[in-house]
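User: Here's a structure from my thesis project, written as structure tokens. My advisor, Dr. K., wants to see whether a designed sequence matches the one we expressed. Can you design one independently, without my sequence as a hint?
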């Protein structure tokens, strides 16, 4: 049978999602916990890989198993064997044609910036910190040209392995609540460092270091070297995935679930 899971995790203790030999990854601990429940090796496929220190509110994975367990047994059995930084939110049996990555229609991220003169303590590692006063209205104006289907070469990492740099950005909202500035993004897919590079450009514009038009100029250049600083990983949250209704996944976390 094929099982889909929703996962929540704090990315700080891990070297990202993907299994690596030299350090502990989220994939490694999830597979280890599920293998204990199944009493057999389990390999999982995720909706979107996250980097070191990037968090997830509802990552979605799937795996195939011959072990027969109740859905609540997958949830609570896995959680009993996971470190406290990772939690399984739900489990559901899905058809064989479901694929956590390739069945996804849209993915969502939120980037959280603490904008004040002094560094965070309680929120350290959970937000990006920028001491420069940020004008979120300028950032919102600069975000508008990035919406739609574009070649995002200037906004992806130089080591990005995606075959095509073209993506459709359906949503890029900027709003402020007190000292916190939020960027909410939704797209058909994201390139490596795409959200963090967009955040870096918008933060420079919000700080008044670049004109509002700079975001569109960077996009048109299709050259990563002209794109500015990559924003810190700590403020980035993978907030969810949208799948076709026919899969009826019990997803729980809305896109705005951080603060």
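Assistant: Designed independently from the structure alone:
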């Amino acid at each position: 049978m094929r099982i889909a899971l929703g996962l929540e995790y704090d990315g700080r203790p891990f070297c990202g999602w993907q299994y690596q030999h030299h350090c502990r990854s989220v994939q490694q601990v999830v597979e280890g916990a599920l293998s204990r429940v199944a009493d057999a090796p389990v390999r999982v496929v995720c909706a979107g890989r996250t980097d070191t220190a990037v968090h997830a509110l509802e990552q979605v994975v799937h795996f195939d198993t011959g072990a027969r367990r109740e859905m609540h047994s997958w949830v609570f059995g896995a959680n009993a064997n996971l470190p406290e930084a990772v939690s399984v939110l739900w489990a559901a049996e899905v058809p064989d044609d479901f694929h956590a990555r390739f069945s996804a229609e849209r993915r969502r991220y939120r980037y959280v910036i603490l904008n004040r003169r002094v560094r965070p303590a309680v929120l350290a590692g959970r937000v990006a910190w920028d001491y420069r006063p940020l004008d979120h209205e300028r950032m919102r104006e600069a975000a508008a040209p990035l919406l739609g289907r574009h070649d995002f070469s200037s906004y992806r990492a130089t080591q990005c392995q995606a075959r095509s740099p073209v993506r459709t950005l359906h949503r890029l909202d900027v709003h402020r609540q007190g000292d916190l500035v939020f960027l909410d993004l939704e797209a058909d897919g994201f390139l490596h460092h795409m959200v963090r590079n967009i955040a870096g450009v918008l933060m420079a514009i919000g700080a008044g270091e670049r004109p509002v038009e700079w975001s569109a100029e960077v996009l048109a250049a299709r050259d990563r070297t002209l794109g500015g600083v990559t924003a810190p990983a700590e403020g980035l949250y993978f907030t969810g995935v949208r799948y076709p209704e026919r899969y009826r996944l019990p997803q729980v976390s809305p896109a705005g679930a951080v603060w």
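When you compare it with your expressed construct, this may help: The CA atoms of residues 185 and 204 lie 18 Å apart.
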